[in-house]
Amino acid sequence: MKIAVVILNYNGKDYLDKFLPSVIQNSADAEIWVVDNCSTDDSVSFLQSEYPQIHLVENESNGGFAKGYNDGLKKIEADYYVLLNSDVEVTPNWIQPCIELFQQDDKIAALQPKILAEQNRHQFEHAGAAGGFLDKNYFPFCRGRIFDIVEEDKGQFNDTKEVFWATGACLFIKADLFHQMGGFDEDFFAHMEEIDLCWRLKRHGYKIYYCGHSTVYHVGGGTLNYMHPRKTYLNFRNSLYTIYKNHEGSLSILFRRMVLDGIAASLFLLKFQFKHFWAVFKAHMSLYANLKSLKKKRNALKQSTSTFNAVGLYNKNITFKKFLGGVKYFKDLKDSDFKS
Predict the structure, then answer these.
(1) CA-CA distance, 176 to 51, in Å (whole number)?
(2) Contact at 8 Å (CB) between 122 and 111?
(3) pLDDT (tens digit, 0 to 9) for every residue of the chain, 340 residues total?
(4) Quick one: 153 and 237 in the same domain?
């Protein structure tokens, strides 16, 4: 059994300097790789001089998170990949519980550990928290994080649980399945590509899991700040891409989602956040501009899909639950409203 911890780096020398020691110290059973995505800082020379034991892949171009990992992983042989953001601190025994969970069920294709905030270590981190879900309109949320409300970690998610998606900030995935699925969709560039990949895996009947017996600490927004309009654009655009590709029923769901996006854009406008309003508009225009290629992907997925595993879908509207129903925490949601 071969495990490869793979860190995608772009101008992240400071993060490598800060967090790579924890990875080296706590990953004795794994090979450690850094895939450099054409950095313009001194990341590569830093690694070569300070960490010659680290395996290094230098990509020929920067195609973002999705293409960066796809290009790098083609050169890395392993049974399990652990895709790890450069701004993540790992802890002792973070790998073994996840590998043991894989070995309990052959249908588990990917999983994530508990993701806590590096700067507030008793609080869940926005990107992944304790495992991801999608509501009836395919809005993502997590155990431990619903929209902008993140919970304090009080041990409430010290379990293992099947979810719908696992975060790309620290994604354990079977290497053969990553390649069989074609890796990440490179048209996404960055953001939500892990949700798309998990959805494709679930369309083949595989399971996605959360392992609460492993913990890492994530800075978050290390490459692109959460409030940056570019992130708004990528999140809205890639969400529409994901729905168009993967939703198996009528695409009327896409219209409903776009209406809700319009409401969000109006709120940006009311708050004088004009760049974010424009980001949502551009995201919708990108959908129209790329319908031909998206339809081709949708048709290909239809032909290849076997039995869809719907566990992790929430049958209600999480937006209404949060903003009109007063729901703040995951425990406030009824188990019966989730598909099982």
Answers:
(1) 28
(2) no
(3) 999 999 999 999 999 999 999 999 999 999 999 999 999 999 999 999 999 999 999 999 999 999 999 999 999 999 999 999 999 999 999 999 999 999 999 999 999 999 999 999 999 999 999 999 999 999 999 999 999 899 999 999 999 999 999 999 999 999 999 999 999 999 999 999 999 999 999 999 999 999 999 999 999 865 555 678 999 999 999 999 999 999 998 899 999 999 999 999 999 999 999 999 999 999 999 999 999 999 999 999 988 878 899 999 999 999 999 988 999 999 999 999 999 8
(4) no
Which residues touch 227 (CB under 8 Å, ≥6 apart)? none
Which is it for strands 80-85 and 3-9: parallel, antiparallel or unpaired?
Answer: parallel
Q: Which of 218, 239, 259 is the last residue of a domain?
A: 218
Structure tokens given for 235: 């999140």
Q: Are residues 97 and 145 in the same domain?
A: yes
Looking at the DSSP bridge assignments, the partners of residue 158 are: none
Asked if the structure places residue 323 within a domain, the reply is no
Q: How far apart are CA 264 and CA 271, in angstroms?
A: 11
- Taking a C-beta distance cutoff of 8 angstroms, is the pair 35, 8 a contact? yes
> Do 126 and 50 fall into the same domain?
yes
> For the chain, what is the domain count?
2
Same domain, 47 and 142: yes
Do 167 and 252 fall within a single domain?
no
Chosen domain end from 162, 187, 218:
218
| Judgement on whether residues 138 and 276 belong to the same structural domain of the protein | no
154's tokens? 């009080």
Range of the domain at 263: 229-305
Buried b (16+ CB within 10 A) or exposed e, 265-282: beebeeeebeebbbbbbe
**DSSP secondary structure string for all residues of 218-261:** E---SSS-TT-HHHHHHHHHHHHHHHHHH--S-THHHHHHHHHH
Q: Are 316 and 332 in contact (CB under 8 A)?
A: no
